[in-house]
Amino acid sequence: MSTAVAEAIDDFKSVTTLNVQNATAVLERGLAALKAGQTVFDLRYVLTVDSAAVSVLLAWEKAAQDAGLTLELKNLPPALQSLTKLYGVCSLLFPTSVTLEPGEAAPANPLHEEFHAVTGQPDTAKLKVGASPEPQHHH
């Protein structure tokens, strides 16, 4: 009877930023986790992202496919969800069974509360949407 202990699952708790500065390190960390057999990646602790984060996710997905595994990405921050939509890669990263419906909100994540004011709906009155342009005064 084997008493070998499986390697601990990487919970990515220490990854609060996924951007160009740490993308290579996070990529390698994820590839190592995949190699150890981990297929579920929970990104709930990631608060700050840039486009490099999308590249990391795509590389993880490719590595999982090459290994015959199915990658499951959970609790992506809203900013990262927006980037995957912007770049048109949602279908590459998420099976259709877990793709959000148009207009459906992502599950709430208390760690992202500070961003609600930034990502909320614009105040159309301040933007003067639909208002006539102000007259130009020439001197």
TrEMBL record:
<dbReference type="InterPro" id="IPR002645">
    <property type="entry name" value="STAS_dom"/>
</dbReference>
<dbReference type="Pfam" id="PF13466">
    <property type="entry name" value="STAS_2"/>
</dbReference>
<dbReference type="InterPro" id="IPR058548">
    <property type="entry name" value="MlaB-like_STAS"/>
</dbReference>
<dbReference type="InterPro" id="IPR036513">
    <property type="entry name" value="STAS_dom_sf"/>
</dbReference>
<protein>
    <submittedName>
        <fullName>STAS domain-containing protein</fullName>
    </submittedName>
</protein>
<feature type="domain" description="STAS">
    <location>
        <begin position="1"/>
        <end position="89"/>
    </location>
</feature>
